[in-house]
Every structure is written in C-alpha cells, then in structure tokens.
Amino acid sequence: MMDYLPIFLNVKGKLCLVVGGGEVAARKAGVLLDAGAKVRVVAPQIKDSLSAQPGVESIVACFDALHLEGITLVIAATDDRSVNQQVSEQAHTRNIPVNVVDDPELCSFIMPAILDRSPLMVAFSSGGASPVLTRMMRGMLESMIPQNYSRLAAFAERFRQQVKQRVTNPAKRRIFWENALEGVVAEKVLTGDENSAEAMLKKMLEDEDNIQRGEVYLVGAGPGDPDLLTFRALRLMQKADVVVYDNLVSKPIVEMARRDAERIFVGKKRADHTLRQEEINELLVRLAKEGKRVLRLKGGDPFIFGRGGEEIETLAAEGIPFQVVPGITAASGVASYAGIPLTHRDYAQSCMFVTGHLKDGTMNLDWAALARPRQTVVVYMGLHGLDTLCAQLVAHGMPETTPIAIVQQGTTRNQRVFTGTLKTLPGIAEREQPQAPTLIIIGGVVTLREKLQWFHPQGDE
Fold first, then answer.
1. Is 188 helix (H, G, I), strand (E, B) or coil?
2. According to the 3-state scheme, what is the secondary structure of 287-328?
3. CATH for 15-111?
4. Contact (Cβ atoms closer than 8 angstroms) between residue 435 and residue 412
5. Predicted local confidence at residue 459, as pLDDT
6. Which CATH architecture has domain 215-328?
7. Is the torsion defined by CA of 102, 107, 113, 114 positive or negative?
8. Whole-prediction pTM value?
9. Which pLDDT band holds residue 461 (cuts at 50, 70, 90)?
10. Would you call 441 exposed, middle or buried from its count of C-beta atoms within 10 A (0-12, 13-18, 19+)?
C-alpha cells in the first residue's frame, strides 16, 4: 500500500506561503517560483537573497494564522519545531496542504526530489524515510534522461490533439505514439531537427490505417525475484495494454506492468485452472485482434514447462504478431538462490530437467535415465508426486542416501529449503508442508548447499 498519493499540483499564479527566512526556506521558495507560484514569506528575519527575488512577498513578523488568508499551499521551514507545529495545525484546520521540512509527522504532503525535463517531470519520494536515498535515485536518472527530452515532450504535446482527432481508437493511438517516440521521429526531435520530425509524424498520420495491429508479448517473468527480469521484459511490460498472468508470477512482478493496463488472472494452480489452456490461447488471440498489446506473463521461462510453445502455435495459426522474451528458468534461479550449483565436476557433469506433472496427471517418467549416476535431476511441479518420485528412483538403482532438496517459493522472501535423502525427504515434506511453487533438486550437488548458500531469508529446514 502506498504511504502517499503521488500527484502533481498546478500552482501557477497561486499564492503559496513559506514560513521561515533562512537557506532552507529560500530553496523551497525557489521551487515554488519555478512552478509559477506567487510566494509569501513570513519570518522574523528574512535573507536578503530571498526577499529580493521577483514574485516574493516578504512579511517580517512571527507567523500568525492571518498569514494563511488566500493561501493554496504551505511550507514550514523554520528551525523551531513549535512554530512548525503551529503552522501545520493551522493549515490542517483550513484544509490547506502543508509540508514541514524534515518532519513527516506534521506533513499532509511530501516535497519530492525532482528531475525537471518540463513538461516531463519525474518526482522521487521515500515518504520522509530517507531523503538521501531519493536524491541518489534522482541522480541515477539524471544521466539516463537527457535534458533534451523536454524538447521531445513539448513536441508530443504540440501534436497531441491532432493525433487524437485522427486516431480515434485508444489502443491504436497508444501504438502510434510509441512508434513515434521510440523511432526515427524521436531521434530527429532529440537532435534538433523538428521540421523533419513533423513531416515524418504527418506521414504516419496519413498512413494511420496501417498502424500495427495488436501483438502478444510472451514474457518469462523468472522464478519470482523482480530483480531477475530482463531489460527487454521491463520495456515490454510498460507498453502492454493488457496483462495476462498466472499463479506462478509473483505479485511484485505483476505490479511492475503499466499501472493502467488491464490485468487478467488465468489461474493455473494444480487441479484448479481459472481457464483451460485452450481458453487462454483463444483469449490471447481475441485481445490481439481487438488491437491491444497483450503481455502474457509466465513464471520462469515460457519454453521450459511453461506451455509457451502451445500458445505461440495458436498465435501463428491466427496470424497474430508475437514476441518471445526468455526468462530465467526456475531451475537456474532457484538453485542459485538456494546455494546449490546444478553442475560441479566432483558431483555432476550433466543436468536433466523434467516435469513431475504430465498432461494426463501422472508421473510416467524415464526412470532409468533419471537414475544414472553423476548427474543432477531437477523436477518441476513434482511436490504432489514426491513419494512416487523417490520410490521409483530407488527402485531403478539410485541409492536411497542420494541427497535431495525441495525449494519453496525460491528467490522470494518466502523461500525455504528442505533437504534430506530419497529415503527421508517424503517424511520431512509431510511434516513441514512446503507451499507451492516448489522445485525439487536431486543429486550430490545438494550437499554443497552448506558451503555455498547465500540467500536464505527463512533459514534451513
């Protein structure tokens, strides 16, 4: 839940009050003046550099509630908390937004760190928890968003109404602007050649009927930690009009998609599918044919037990454009966070991925191949068949002392690792009741966990 509602307030021509006459007050008054406000400054002593600024009304006096007459917004920037508290209380009584510098408890709004590329504005806030961190974040983006992006934003503003009148379909209009702002038009504007950019934009408008229709992005969301997403995945997540996701995609990742995108949950829990796979395929086709850009978020990698192949078969058959973005598969990501290397020259020279839940609901695997020595076996969706898995591997020649691990919700804060042997782990799982999604890792490499673990928020089991 957000601690504050981030908004941008229009104070152009409005009278704002700054209580305080020192250096901090001068900085706050400067921000208000840059936003087009008229500023009233009240303090027993006021710096000459502050009172001399155009647009500043200076009142050399102690604060009084009368100073709030006609005020739109208040900033208290004195070094006396009792005065700041008085300003806050009087402003709250009159429902006037108030900020008290470095005192979040007295604030109704927070002054963010600002990256100004007007009309493009970026604001950062930690809700007063760490102003230094917000300034660091602003500095990081300062170099990533060049100053001439202000020119690009102004260019888009100039043609906004014209494009809106010509391209009436909202989904197509979004695609039109994304094509313009990510392509040659944007490059021309950023290099100062706005005449060429304008000609190109008008040509795009004349060819509006050929604006790209809907498209599907089949994106691997990785095993759960948002930091493991690829740059390409993040870029497409911000372009999509609709997000179609299932139970294996963590909530923090879903929330990284464009905020105003429609979200459709399609289930995919064991024995409880909100939609059958065939219905999901049809949904993707229908949404794309409506002209929407559809983000199909799948846990791990779409092509490793993710049924991504089935989905793009349907899309290809219907002539729907699509992109596939690989993700870090659970075997790689979860094993890494659990401190278990999948291969190691002293333990395993090969690694085999299998699914413990086949299409007909059985676990009919090539047991002889899985039981070979000096290899690692990774089992996806095998928790409910754990007894059968362990028994069959032992029956086909794998020693019952072979190390095995279950990793619950790997790479997330809910990660737990349960280790044992083929003989003991079923009993451990019965007692501890690990929660899906889980991954099972079998082989000598599991013994390396004690030496190599680095991410274990809940400890070992």
1. helix
2. HHHCCCEEEEEECECCCCCCCHHHHHHHHHHCCCCEEEECCC
3. 3.40.50.720
4. no
5. 43
6. 3-Layer(aba) Sandwich (3.40)
7. negative
8. 0.64
9. low
10. buried
Token pair for 115 = 């990256």
- Count of CB atoms situated within 10 Å of the CB of 374: 12
Residue with the two structure tokens 């966990």: 449
Smallest Cα–Cα separation from 307: which of 286, 338, 284, 289?
284
Q: What are phi and psi of 86, to 5 degrees?
A: -60, -45
Catalytic residue (choose from 172, 268, 292, 298): 268
pLDDT for residue 206: 84
**Given 172, 246, 292, 301, which residue is catalytic?**
246
DSSP-assigned states of every residue in 208-254: GGGS---EEEEEE-BSS-GGGS-HHHHHHHTT-SEEEE-TTS-HHHH
Amino acid at 215: E
Highest mean pLDDT among 184-188, 231-235, 263-267, 375-379: 375-379
CA torsion angle 390 392 398 401 (round to 10): 30
Q: Do 15-111 and 215-328 show the same overall fold?
A: no
Token output for 300: 């791990």
User: To which CATH superfamily is domain 331-452 assigned?
Assistant: Tetrapyrrole methylase, C-terminal domain (3.30.950.10)
Query: Which residue type sits at 193?
Result: D
- Catalytic residue list contains 64: no
Instruction: Sheet containing 215-220: give its strands across.
Output: 262-265, 242-245, 293-298, 215-220, 322-325
48: helix, strand or coil: helix
Identify whether 3 is a catalytic site residue. Answer: no
Parse the chain into domains and list their residue ranges: 15-111, 149-210, 215-328, 331-452
